[in-house]
Amino acid sequence: MANPIYGIDLGTTNSSIARLENGRAVALPVEEGQALVPSVVSYDEAAQQVIVGRQARRRQAAFPHHTIRSVKRLMGQNSTVTLGSQHFTPEEISSFILNYLAFQAGKLTGEKIKKVVITVPAYFNDVQRRATIKAGELAGLEVVRIINEPTAAALVYDYASMAGDQSPYILVYDLGGGTFDVSILEVKGEIKEVLASSGDTALGGDDFDRCLVELFQDFLLAQVDQPQEWGLPVQMRLQDIAEQTKVILSDQPFCQVAEAAVWVVDGKPLNLRLEVSRQQLESLTAELMNRTISKVFDALQEAALSPADIGKILLVGGATRMPMVATRLQEIFHRPIFHAIDPDLCVAMGAAVQGGLISGAPLGHILLDVTAHTLGIKTIDQIDPDTGEADYFSPIIRRNSRIPTRQAEVYYTVVNCQESVTIEVFQGENSSCRRNVAVGSFTFPLKPAPPKSPVIVEFAYDPEGLVHITVEQKDKQNRKEVTLDIRHKRILPDDSEEQGQESLRVVNYIVEKATRLLQAKQLPQEEQQRLQDLVAAYAEALQQEASGPEVDALEDELLATLEEMEERLPFLEQG
Questions:
Q1: Residue 229 has what DSSP assignment?
Q2: Segments of the chain with pLDDT less than 50
Q3: What domain range is 269 assigned to?
């Protein structure tokens, strides 16, 4: 296939890259003959270079302050990662991993890799998904699609063995290094429809390891006379020992831990020598296991199914190799429990299948996915008692709605001849906007009308992750359409201009909003000047064709500033 779209599983613990070869998804052995690449990044001060993968993992014991792993848990957060003398965002760290995968795969295949499908946990919110897309762009890749990890795994599962089954429902249980997802799919021939998804983006194999780390720490503390602080080097070493112990206990009932000089206290080296049983690990992690089972029942409830309705259980993610996972699920479902083709690699392989579907490869799969979170807008129906501001989250597209989908709700103006409304888009499951995630906002000018005049807001969610928003003032021939682009955290007007003019449309849109704020003459002089300077810098960067990250950074700052300054604008209330 010319210029294939590669699939990448950007994992918490390990990452991998795959492509289609003769109609089959193949995970590429890009590092030391292995397809799994540790999601570890280290900075070498002497060479002034970033190191990724196994070499980085080997450095972490000697250079713990220059090395990071499990950065996936920071995606979407406004945080900084410090590696020695250098400071990076989580997106930049992830971009190093993505760039390394693409570079190594290119060396192996002889192709320059540009287009990719990247997987994310099904329960990632739009901020985390945007951060993943940005990481891909920083790595010089075109992210043509973001796909949920359980859905990707389902794409490579052989459903031929289901031919004689009466139930068409599959439950995908995905326990990775840092995240947990559960999805329920209905299989109708080659059509795979996701009915429901649930999960926890802060629960994974790392948490099971941490229970063993605490066990080891208690063992070591028993050998000293007074409390001690744990240094980063010993913490990292204990994490590695814990991970190795968990892996051994997945195959063996007992593990003999024998590590010399794990910790040095007052010049005395302390050894870690103890036996850990599988039963002990299962007891230590029972609460974590129960949390995953709770999410399983949440997904069943949202799909309106019972355990008896499920035909088969598919296990995805390296942590599902722990025997207690299959045992607990067997107790609930009394159904066959299957590991995917390879629980560590099937997600990247599924992403490659999705890439083939996008590029038109004759694979025969039809995928119907669902929204991971509810999308809605802020209305004045509820006032925050602490701030005195509107804070009600009015849902429009409900969680687990099948994509593509289109939903509309009617709202009503508040005052006579109201001049405009601000459409503030949020996602989440809480009735309070401030407890959900802000996605974007824009202003809709109104024509003169009495109070309680209807305004219709429609959301249309497409497979590309774009939400097309239509706002219409009923019976007033007043209508506005915008597109919420989760890739760049921006709302763009929908019009017929050429794609090459998109950046100009964005700056015009921002200038329009900024002009309206400045004309209101309600901002202090210093804030007016700050806004004018930001708009000027942003316009200049676009005109000079500055780099994508530079423009995106200016744009994010501008949008955040505009949102902050628009707080006085009137809201809508729902009827």
A1: P
A2: 159-164, 487-488, 493-505, 568-575
A3: 205-286
